[in-house]
Amino acid sequence: MKKDMNFIGKSKIFFGISLAIIAIGLICNLIFGVTLDIQFKGGTIVNYSYTGEIDQEALKDAIQSATPEHQVSFTITKDIMNNQADADAYAVSIQFSGNESIESDVIQGITTALEEKFPDNNFQYKENSSVEASMGLKFLLKCLTAVAIASVLMVIYVTIRFKRIGGLSAGVMALVALFHDVAMIYFMYVIFRMPIDSNFIAVVLMIIGYSLNDTIVIYDRVREERRLAGPKADIADVFNHSASSVMGRTIATSITTLVAIGTVYVVALIFNLSSVQSFALPMMIGIVSGCYSSLCIAGPLWVLWNKRGGKGEKAEAPKAEKAKA
Hints:
Layout: H1 11-32, H2 38-41, E1 43-51, H3 56-66, E2 72-78, E3 89-97, H4 104-117, E4 124-131, H5 133-161, H6 167-191, H7 198-229, H8 235-270, H9 274-309, H10 311-324
Antiparallel strand pairs: 1-3, 1-4, 2-3
Helix pairs in contact: 1-6, 3-4, 5-6, 5-7, 6-7, 6-9, 7-8, 7-9, 8-9
């Protein structure tokens, strides 16, 4: 018979690992801070296309010399939407932070500077778009509200579905695991100096659902094992057996998803698709964190709650008494 892994006995190690990562993330957050994308903090984006290879430092100097009064940044991606049969087609997105819109003469000055500096690269102006800082803040708040509502609804669902094993404790610890996963994704953005944009919200919502699914699978197995073992069984042993029995499935599912997302990330690297990279990389971190938190954070915390409060034993006692009668 396969020996169960002692998740509860090693819970202090698991908690220590998570706390250490969170501490490192907080330190990096204090040192580097967090960067918001223009869609959240406001600003203007001007898009160009060009062909061939260019020196990025020379490009930066050309843009900055054409707009000395503005602080700008830019990103370069492979122009896969280019209609020409040119494998060396690229797109450059120039970002201007602030509330003031960029005048047409400023854009014309940038276009002229790029055409003069890189005459052989066929620079062409595509479009520009502006976002007010107040609108960006409202958008960010709406996104965070969506995350909060999704989290609360999921906890309510877990509380109702698993009331026989202490629904409130199961729901609260599932929420703690979700906060753990969101923190891991956030600190990844901070450590890698990636601006927080709509991809961050999309990743968080997807990982919340993914992580909760793993947690529900484990809770479902715990509920079944609890019913079979009876109210006198130690809930730590019940959880260890339940988590060990589904661990292979959970890890296999996570690895399969990681391979798929990893493939997307590699393709994005090859074609220099920064928007896809900023989605795929946090997704991979979130998948690993979601698998880890379901097995090593939510479950051990649930056992700790029930052992100290005695709720786990009480939850099954009435059922057992009815069976005896």
